[in-house]
Amino acid sequence: MSTFQAPKGTYDLTPPRSATFLAVREAIAAPLRDSGYGYIETPGFENVELFARGVGESTDIVTKEMYTLTTKGGDQLALRPEGTASVLRAALEANLHKAGNLPVKLWYSGSYYRYERPQAGRYRHFSQVGAEAIGTEDPVLDAELIILADQAYRSLGLRQFRILLNSLGDKECRPVYREALQTFLRDLDLDEETRRRIEINPLRVLDDKRADVQKQLTDAPKLRDYLCDACKAYHEEVRALLTTAGVAFEDDEKLVRGLDYYTRTTFEFVHDGLGAQSAVGGGGRYDGLSEMIGGPELPSVGWALGVDRTVLALEAEGIELDLPYTTSVYAVPLGEEARRVLFGVVTELRRAGIAADFAFGGRGLKGAMKSANRSGARYTLVAGERDLAEGVVQLKDMESGEQGPVELAEVAAELTKRLG
Ligand code: ATP
Ligand code: MG
Question: What per-residue confidence (pLDDT) applies to 306?
Fold first, then answer.
């Protein structure tokens, strides 16, 4: 029988690299937790209709990338391709917006699924940490989220990333622009699919990666020239807040999210060491989304950062996170009696909050000491017949090499003292 492999477009997280993933998730979550965002967890699948409405019928995500399934009971479900629609659905369902404390600030972390062509940095199963601030329209909130993402990346040591920023206008000025853009696009030499896109989702055409399309877009009407005064003022305020916070950004006219419920602030974090899959995270305002999925008017803003690409960005910059060894004490028993006694000591240490591991399987001293070294433990405990007869174990400091007997009853107290 052949052995199984991870499905196409997926990969497993195994030690030691998996520790970096955990650390990245934690680094992204920490600034959110410290800024009033509460943790939310939603199911890995939802009714397909939620994404059709909440991500958009005309997006690649919904038309090409979604994993859909029909349950035995006949329900149409989809594995979640992104987090925002689910989080907003859950917040509405729990009436969080009625608790009288807006914005509702939430963060999440989890797996997402898209049926994509697998490439470096593009997978069918990937991991995001995201944040949403629901129910308030305030440029300070948009700025807060961008600043917190910047802080997260910086705390990881990342430097070669850039923030691209744009405003998409609102329900007053965007439709006027949309029409002007459509009129311009209809006169271009474009393929059938792109022509269809002009009618459903014209802003997305600006995002086309092909050079021959981009060449024709040079004189396309610019959204900037169509922004209403309120949108202009809002955007200037976000820009000023970022500048005051010392967060550098680049204005990017071409940055779009082509759906009607995405409004005003939109941004993307790109990393220059990642090649084609350069976006490590993105987000923006979605003032119309709540109404799209049957809720009240709740202007909101959020982002999602890709954990996989963030890890690739760390590797591209040659950053090794300073991850402390997880084991502090490693116990090496010599003989049956010592196994029982030392395992008791290890259990006692663990209950006292000291990370301890054990040489399992009755190996000899040499092999066991190798494992002790590999574990990174600062201390080893070694005990044989003679030590036990004297009621002691040998405590060795792996850094200094110093070694000496410690009374069995004193081991936990001694190690607690030494490990501070
Ligand atoms: P792209 O333009 O690269 O397809 P996107 O606009 O589809 O990205 P978003 O939906 O904004 O991406 O998701 C936010 C982040 O999640 C991205 O910036 C990226 O880091 C990550 N991400 C999205 N799709 C994938 C994927 N298939 N594999 C790995 N990470 C992904
Ligand atoms: Mg995509």
Answer: 98
| Ligand 1 atom with least separation from CA of 310 | 20
pLDDT of residue 1: 60
Candidates 347, 359, 368, 325; CA nearest to 412 is 347
Query: Which pTM value belongs to this model?
Result: 0.93
Contact 88, 299 (CB under 8 A): no
Ligand 1 atom closest to 65 (CA): 27
Would the CA dihedral through 151, 153, 155, 157 be positive or negative? negative
Nearest residue by C-alpha to atom 25 in ligand 1: 122
Fill in the amino acid letter for 74: G
Residue 105, ligand 1, Cβ within 6 A? no
Model pLDDT, residue 57: 81
Task: Indicate which residue's Cα is closest to atom 23 of ligand 1.
Answer: 306
Conformational region of residue 305, where left means phi above 0, alpha means psi within -120 to 50, and beta covers everything else? beta
Q: Which residues of the chain have pLDDT under 70?
A: 1, 258
Whether 190 is in a domain gets the answer no
Structure letter (DSSP) for residue 102: S
Q: What gap in Å lies between CA 279 and CA 305, rounded to an integer? A: 9
**Would you say 101 and 58 are in contact if contact means Cβ atoms under 8 Å apart?**
no
- Distance between alpha carbon 305 and the CA centroid of its chain, in Å? 4
Q: Mark whether 296 and 364 lie in a shared domain.
A: no
Question: Do 366 and 308 sit in the same domain of this protein?
Answer: no
Q: Which ligand is nearest to the CA of 128?
A: 1
At residue 329, the pLDDT reads 98
Pairing of strands 104-113, 125-134: antiparallel
**DSSP state, 37?**
P
Residue owning the nearest CA to atom 24 of ligand 1:
122
Q: Is there a single domain that holds both residue 245 and residue 373?
A: no
Question: What range does the domain containing 137 cover?
Answer: 17-173+227-316
User: Exposure of 320 by Cβ count < 10 A (0-12 exposed, 13-18 middle, 19+ buried)?
Assistant: exposed
Which is the closest atom of ligand 1 to the Cα of 281?
A: 18
- Ligand 2: centre distance to CA 61 (Å): 7
Q: In this structure, is residue 130 part of a structural domain?
A: yes
At residue 258, the pLDDT reads 61
Instruction: Ligand 1 pocket test: pick from 66, 86, 109, 112 the residue with the most ligand atoms within 8 Å of its Cβ.
Output: 112
3-state secondary structure of 75: coil
Whether 258 and 353 map to the same domain: the answer is no
